[in-house]
């Protein structure tokens, strides 16, 4: 593997980790807003 391949592998790993964190945060935020919605109507 050349240096460029190593940089690409590291970049892909970091982007995948960031994507997983963003999706997890989005799901958590959506669940929290879903739980808060019925409280506002009562």
Mean pLDDT metric: 87
Q: What is the makeup of the main sheet?
A: none
Number of separate strands: 0
Give the distance, in angstroms, between the N- and C-terminal Cα atoms.
61 Å
Strand content: under 5%
Structural class: mainly alpha
Radius of gyration: 18 Å
> Helix proportion of residues, in percent?
over 70%
Element-by-element helix/strand order = H
Low-confidence stretches: none
Which terms would index this structure?
42 residues
Protein model, in words:
The chain is 93% helix and 0% strand. It contains one helix and no strands. The model has no long low-confidence stretch (mean pLDDT 87).
List the helices and strands and how they pair.
Layout: H1 3-41
Summarize the structure in short.
Helices cover 93% and strands 0% of the residues. With 42 residues, it is mostly helical.
């Amino acid at each position: 593997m050349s240096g460029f391949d190593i940089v690409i592998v590291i970049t892909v790993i970091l982007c995948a980790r960031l994507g997983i964190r963003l999706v997890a945060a989005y799901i958590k935020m959506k669940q929290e807003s879903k739980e808060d919605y019925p409280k506002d109507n009562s």
